[in-house]
Write a structure and sequence with these properties.
By secondary structure, this protein is of the alpha/beta class. The protein folds into two domains: about 60 residues, no CATH class; about 240 residues, Rossmann fold. It is about 40% helix and about 20% strand. It has eleven helices and twelve strands. The relative contact order is 0.11.
Length: about 325
């Protein structure tokens, strides 16, 4: 099958990578052979050869994009391809094993669950989405996934790549647009805009979940988030409030779970880079502000970890009784 270049778009939607054979894009032409894609750059007279296997198609199209700028969207991937991409090598001990322990310790997923995944577009939410898709395909537990993204209208339609990414993995991203960013940033009376922003977003998620009869919400908070939040409460609020790995919201009648509770942030960073996840960069000025208390606590933990590499695990173990 030969496809002609679509001048109006640099996104090619196909069912199978073999449909790329004979396709032209700008100065590139493509030839697909068994486990090899040949790319000819007619302008610069350069030939590029990319080898691939049938269960590594996502990585193949990522390599093609980096070499040519052509974005390829496969209409659907089979379970073998999806699992091969998600699991990748080198994350069994640092990602999949701690996620499995957290899910077991707090009975996070059960038969018949309808589970929303809060997708911010950052490394953590995309990592936890991958983890849930992986578990759905290998566990034998029958549950449904509903990734939902709360998107500030002030940032424009930046979520296209994430929506395409979800489609590749066989799930549909739901987008709820809101103008909360402008109202919070312009309110000078707010002492804690980050807390208020998170609360408003969570409220929107809860309302949407109630409409769709969804009983659980997955959030991408990891071990570092839990430790930092505890220290923030102790140092600045004078209480021992914790971010629990799992809890039941009586107000909304649903369970909130954090499968990454035992995972360190450095591992979600490494995983996102290894897989080339389509990160949606946050334009919020409070994220990198020098006045950010969370950033100060994060740096404090980093300093402690230089002398005691296991300090995060030690701190998490010391507050586990508060999770009950």
């Amino acid at each position: 099958m030969y496809l002609k270049q679509k001048k109006e778009s640099s996104v090619l939607k196909i069912d199978n990578i073999k449909e790329l054979n004979g396709y032209t894009f700008q100065s590139f032409t493509f030839e697909v052979k068994e486990n090899i894609v040949l790319i000819n750059n007619l302008k610069d007279e350069i030939k590029i050869e990319i080898t691939y296997t049938e269960n590594k198609i996502i990585k193949l199209i990522d390599k093609i994009y980096k070499q040519t700028g052509l974005k390829i969207n496969l209409n659907k991937l089979d379970d073998r391809e999806i699992l091969s991409f998600i699991q990748d090598k080198g994350f069994e001990k640092t990602l999949w094993s701690p996620i499995g322990r957290a899910m077991h310790d707090y009975n996070m997923i059960e038969e018949g669950d309808r589970i929303a995944v809060g997708i911010s577009g950052g490394k953590d939410s995309l990592t936890v989405l991958n983890a849930l898709i992986r578990i759905k395909k290998i566990s034998g537990i029958n549950f449904e996934l509903f990734p939902i993204h709360i998107h500030p209208v002030e940032e424009g339609g930046k979520y296209g790549d994430i929506k395409d990414y979800c489609s590749k993995l066989g799930v549909e991203l739901q987008v709820i647009e809101t103008s909360i960013g402008e109202s919070i940033l312009t309110n000078e009376d707010l002492k804690n805009p980050c807390f208020m922003c998170a609360r408003v977003r969570r409220g929107l998620l809860y309302k949407e979940m109630k409409k769709q009869n969804i009983n659980k919400l997955v959030l991408g908070h990891h071990k570092d988030d839990i430790i930092e939040t505890f220290l923030l409460n102790v140092l600045y609020q004078g209480n021992m409030g914790v971010m629990k790995p799992a809890y039941h919201s009586e107000e909304y009648g649903l369970k909130v779970i954090r499968p990454l509770a035992y995972v360190e942030e450095k591992e979600t960073i490494r995983y996102a880079k290894k897989l080339g996840l389509p990160i949606l960069h946050n334009d919020c000025p409070y994220e990198t502000s020098d006045n950010s208390k969370r950033l100060k606590v994060k740096k404090m933990i980093e300093e402690l970890a230089k002398d005691s590499p296991n300090v995060r695990s030690v701190m998490l173990n010391s507050i586990k009784d508060l999770f009950v």
